[in-house]
Amino acid sequence: MSLNRRERDSIGNQYKIYRILLLSLSVWPFQQSKYTILIRSFHFGIMISFTFFQLTSFLTNELVLDVVIMILSYALPSCICMIQYHSFCSNSYIVKRIWEDIYSTWNLMRNETEHKIMRQYKAKAEYHTKLFLTIIISSCIIYGIFEAMPVILDIILPLNKTRPREIHALLEYFIDKDAYFFPILCHWLIGLIIGCYVIICVTTSLLVCLQHISGLFKVANYRIEHSADDYVFYNSTQENNRIENFIRNISAAVDIHQTAIERCEYLLDNFIKHFFFMLVIGVTSLSLNLFRLLKAIITLDEVEIVSSILFTSGHFVIMFVINYYGQQITDYHSEIFTAAYNVRWYVTPVKIQKLLLFIMQSTTKAYYLNIGNLIVASIEGFSKLVSMAISYFTLIYSLL
Prior knowledge:
The chain has helices spanning 5-14, 16-24, 36-55, 57-60, 65-89, 92-106, 112-147, 149-156, 181-225, 236-299, 302-342, 350-362, 379-399, and strands at residues 370-371, 375-376.
């Protein structure tokens, strides 16, 4: 579908927080300008250089396991950032189509109760978005303070000599690190902030889509539950009207259910490659950062402890939230079977009973968000990801 300017503005106003987030990265599909390529190039340039100067450390350091783990524990999350950003930049039409579908769905709601259901799930997604933003901003501030601690202490509590200044990550800029400490620190922190910001913007945009789909399943559930509320027999004429009304209600529920399924499949089909690479890299990165955390605790390195806790926690939180949303979709799909089963079918004629039986048969099989036949987005899927990460972590530890 193609939206006019008023409808596009309506999407931006209704989902204002996501418009602002995506617009700042120049990936909001309804507002492109002549500076779009320039802004995207800037963000990609920062992220690529951020990763490049980490990988160049392989050229100047002995390739022992500790060094490899230290470098990759930062470089792999950087790769995830670039993959996420690329997924939205290269799929502008798809992102636009997703937002248009979200907008058009609101027109399918038939009463205030259904609108209220959709608003509840929209509000939940916005709450999680604001929570993630707060956590990320706080984490970046904490990490930045620890990295700049020698400079801060030199100002507050000066000594006779300058405290050692170094970034607690293996970097190689091929310049004098002491003479150019501030430019290196600024580049490092800017790259880190942009990377975290990209993850938040893209992830929360995908989450609001999943939450919207959950709302559609809930609306379908509501329509089935209340499809027979007014079903009463008075005479043959009224009975025919009731049957037609009942069938319309059930058909509307089936339509919204099918719409939700189609939205899920469209999202998975178009982002499956990006999801696959992010999943593989994410599990590997989590394993390496768990090892970093263990080593930091053993050596009592305070900065490394804080850094590895922030990175590890970020992996866990994002993995859990995505799998939680996937589990929610599976649960809501299953509830449709229960709703159809609990309808007062015993007051309906055989024709309607067969229709209800069809709905129950079509929802008997659970629906899952299957990511490349590799993992299912669910609580069980989250536990499998964590188990894999811990297994790889144990393997790495055994090699030392």
